[in-house]
Amino acid sequence: MIDQHTHTLYSPDASKTTTFLDYVNQAKQRGFSGIMVTDHVDFDCPDPLFQSIIDYTHYFEDVLEAKTKSNFDIRVGVELGYQRQSLGKIKQLVQTYPFDLVLLSIHYIDGLDPYDGSYFKGKSHDESIQRYFETVYEAITQCDDFDIFGHFDYITRYGDFENRTIALEDHQEIIDSILLTLISKQKGIEINMSGIDERPKRAYPSIDILKRYHALGGSIITIGSDAHHEKKLGRHFDIAIKILKEAGFQEIALFKNRIPVFYPLDELL
Ligand SMILES: [Zn+2]
Ligand SMILES: [Zn+2]
User: Which of 59, 72, 89, 171 stands the most exposed, by the fewest C-beta atoms within 10 Å?
Assistant: First the structure.
């Protein structure tokens, strides 16, 4: 098993002390076979915190040093935040460096941040969800330089709403368009376990969406903790496996050199 969504001190919102070797030590304790680091790159980010972009030449040197010291399987992914104006920079980054996995995520919609609430101003619950999914559809249609779409219904974390569920039938057309596009482009989705500890108190995406992805023929699934501290590595993976089985999946994909290798869920952990 490998946790395929983790952040180190190279991510501006992660623990300032969490190094590659901290994750290696945690992974060894958990009996995992490797680690995958997926630090943030959000080009053209409105939030000043995320405006400095990682120097990947230095980053890969640092990874090599950690690999040499630990003799452990350290894979390098990246979590790219999609914005329309950043497509060229995303392509260039992905084509320049030898990533093992590229996660594509939406952190901003129309330049607005759901985290600070500005995105929700003047939108109903339904409108905020619909516009988010339209942006997801645009991202995965316009961008080819990724492997996995991250935290699928991330929008349910934010907004001042009681209701954090998405009724599939209310957004069926756009969700189906997204899932069918991902399937036809041979891209996958992740089950992201960070939502259990935070809002919406469940994994992303909801099981209904996982079931729908499976029913439409989707088969590329990764599991990620979205850890921003080494102590969160592999959090709730037992629950993730249960949910995936219930949704109909029998295998997960572990990525290396951006190629998925499939392992039966029963043989993991
Ligand atoms: Zn993210
Ligand atoms: Zn993340």
Answer: 89
| CA of 149, nearest ligand number | 1
Grade residue 17 by pLDDT with cuts at 50, 70 and 90: very high
Which ligand has an atom closest to residue 3 CA?
2
Domain at 20-267, CATH from 3.40.50.2300, 3.90.180.10, 3.50.50.60, 3.20.20.140: 3.20.20.140
| CA 72 / ligand 2 centre spacing (Å) | 22
How remote is the CA of residue 196 from the centroid of ligand 1, in Å? 15
Whose atoms come closest to the Cα of 107: which ligand? 1
Reference 86, options 116, 136, 45, 54; nearest CA is: 45
Report how far ligand 1's centroid is from the alpha carbon of 103 (Å). 9
Q: Residue 39 has what pLDDT? A: 98
What are 104-139's pLDDT values in tens digits? 999 999 999 999 989 999 999 999 999 999 999 999
What residues are neighbours of ligand 2 (ion), with CB under 5 Å?
Answer: 79, 226
Centroid of ligand 1 to alpha carbon of 190 (angstroms): 11
pLDDT value of residue 267: 83
Q: How far is the CA of 181 from the centre of ligand 2 (A)?
A: 22
**What residues have their beta carbon closer than 5 A to ion ligand 1?**
105
- The CA 191 to ligand 1 mean position distance, Å, reads 12
Q: What is the pLDDT of residue 90?
A: 98
Q: How confident is the model at residue 269 (pLDDT cuts 50, 70, 90)?
A: low
